[in-house]
Amino acid sequence: MIMKKTILLIDDDIHLLNSMASYLISEDFKVHITTNGYNALQNLTIINPDLIITDIIMPHIDGYELIKRIRSEQNQNNIPIIFLTAKGMTPDRILGYNLGCNAYLTKPFYPEELTSIINNIFKHLEFWQQNININKNIQIIQDKKENSVFNSMTSKEYNILLLVAKGYTNKEIAQKVKSSVRNIEKYVSRLLNKTKTRNRTELTKLTLLNDLNKSKGE
User: In the chain, at which residue ranges do the beta strands (DSSP E only) sit?
Assistant: First the structure.
């Protein structure tokens, strides 16, 4: 079952507020209303809206101040905000966009246009979220592959790998692990094959990345 999107409407015109609420409810949205920005801020974490539609000229806190405060809060700064206002001059719209509004619609307006704007914002958010999830899944798969490679190494292979990552030459590694240079060359070649890297530089980067991921996990 698809959850209804929650919209918070803020406008000091109670007649317009009720009219918009009725229309958006008929469009299958869940709607909360308030007549001023102060009440909106007080109840924002309780309502937890998916989108906010607000007037600009309001008592107590105007729309510009409202969006400033919302965008300054880490847990709320990603909420899409639509300005719906009579202040339709170009400088007003520029200020609104500079403060972080997602859309700007001037009064009077067609309700169908408002719905189209809302749906378009949600579609873009869904697409953005899907891309984030895909990238996360790809990273998880890559991390698992890398970890499986490192886990399959013997202790001696891993020790040699760490020395390679520290920039030691094969001769220096041979001296440290008390082996021949020929054996070290074989180990390095085996490590390149196991990790599917082409040279010592790529092998070093992979090792450092693995160590960084391990430290983050800890």
Answer: 6-10, 30-34, 51-54, 81-85, 103-106
